[in-house]
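User: Here's a chain of 120 residues. Predict its fold as tokens.
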Amino acid sequence: MQDAILLISSNLFFFPRIKAAANKCNLSTKMITNPVDLDNAKKNHNVQFILIDLEFEIWDDILNSIKSKDIPYKSIIAFGPHSDTDSFEKAKNLGCTSVLPKGTFSNKLNDLFNESSLNV
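Assistant: Prediction complete.
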């Protein structure tokens, strides 16, 4: 089973950059847009990181599914507009390891998996 990053999003803007950063750490990337995708990812991948786009309208439903299905992971990193403080707080309350403004996430993307993936 391949180590993977799950991206909870329907926005394709960050996907190529996330995939490139993940590839440098020998991690595959799987975009999750619904619970069926989540079930398939659990069967076929060893989940290392879960990235959550807070602008994705059902991110919280999928995060709750992750928790209810006991999917093991190292870290959940949520990202979204810096002005969306309600979603930041909700993400923290639902168990996200880290919640970042989208600009910070974008700037740190190449380093997010490097240090952590070395501890696999």
